[in-house]
Amino acid sequence: MEDFNAANEIQDLQYFGEFGGVNPSISDSSTYTFLSAKTMFDTFEGNGEGCYLYSRHSSPMNVYLAQALAKMENTAAANVTSSGMGAITTVLLQLCKSGDHIISSRTIYGGTYAFLKNFLPPFQIETTFLDIDDFEALENSIRPNTKILYCESVSNPLLRVADLRRLSTLCKKYKLKLIVDNTFSPLSISPIRLGADIVIHSLTKFINGSSDSVGGVYCASQEFIDETKNVNSGACMLLGPTMDSLRSASILKNLRTLHIRMKQHSCNALYLAERFEQDGLKVSYPGLISHPNHELMKSIMHEAYGFGGLMTVDVETTERANELMELMQAENLGYLAVSLGFYKTLFSCSGSSTSSEIPEEERLAMGISDGLIRFSIGLDDDIERTYRKMRACMQKVGILK
Ligand SMILES: *Cc1c(COP(=O)(O)O)cnc(C)c1O
């Protein structure tokens, strides 16, 4: 994977503002004028090269941000949306019509799971949920009407890593689209380089990184992006999950420091994961040799950005998890909050929060125990000090001696 560096791709993109500003100017308009009526007609028809029409379709700042994210994911094009779910639902609804079938990893973001499981079936779009590393089951469940194989590169919350190369081979054999949600591993995993067709991110997490914005993106071929924006049949154009220009300007500026933040998140998470594992806790982190996908992750990641900022600790019961999280928050070690990718450590109990859409029985079968705490490790400068303070909390609630 040495030949591609996503951070360099972003860095090489240079945008200037209208007056020579070092940041691009924000175009604060919902609609655009045309010098001739003919050009307006052509733009409606999708032939208005470089023309803006109406900001639900396209706007200059959104195009800047989308271009940067397309560079990052090594695709020809991208489109930004008002949320990660806005990107996921756009992609799925563009590709699937009534009667189609989807195969999905069963360890996915709770909102995506609920969309596939509850929202799509009334439209006659069915999903089979499987373990993404059970290749025999995956192949056996492919039907003539299967259109999509959907997974997360690093899954939520269990941090299982998808073997994207092998999944891509399977998809090519059966002409399925491989769609990968790469929210947990920006820069460190490049799904397109491993054979994915479409890559999705919730920009709300690491990419924006300041927990002040909600946003999403899908990165794909120019043809697919154009389809989703078609005025007659495009899922994004017609469902309308448009990102606001002011937001995209803000996210683009934060994207500029993503590489530094990812390194620090990963470095801190690896440190804590190693120390807590040595202390005898049930820690899951792809950077640990004990993690079932450690070697796989090493074989697909760009090493400089590390194994990511998320880790889980299983303290067995919800009561213990809650007690520990409340204490850590009181000690200012982080916040009891969902989401991830913030400067501050965030922790939540997955079973009762971000994965609560998944029925209890299925959750336990997946390995999401009631006491599983997901940590999104922050950018702490002195992680050794954080470790000592966290360990003291664990001792106080009886998780460690
Ligand atoms: C948060 C998240 C989403 C949804 O993104 P929103 O921006 O909240 O709509 C999708 N996938 C993953 C992996 C996420 O963590």
TrEMBL record:
Pfam family, one: Cys_Met_Meta_PP
Top-level EC class as recorded in UniProt: lyase
Highest taxon, organism lineage: Bacteria
Molecular function, one GO term: transferase activity
InterPro entries on file: Cys/Met-Metab_PyrdxlP-dep_enz, PyrdxlP-dep_Trfase, PyrdxlP-dep_Trfase_major, PyrdxlP-dep_Trfase_small
Keywords for the protein's UniProt record, in alphabetical order: Lyase, Pyridoxal phosphate, Transferase
Keyword Phosphoprotein found: no
EC number: 4.4.1.11
Database matches in Gene3D superfamilies: Aspartate Aminotransferase, domain 1, Type I PLP-dependent aspartate aminotransferase-like (Major domain)
Listed cofactors: pyridoxal 5'-phosphate
Entry similarity comment: Belongs to the trans-sulfuration enzymes family.
Name this polypeptide is given: Methionine-gamma-lyase
Organism: Sphingobacterium zeae
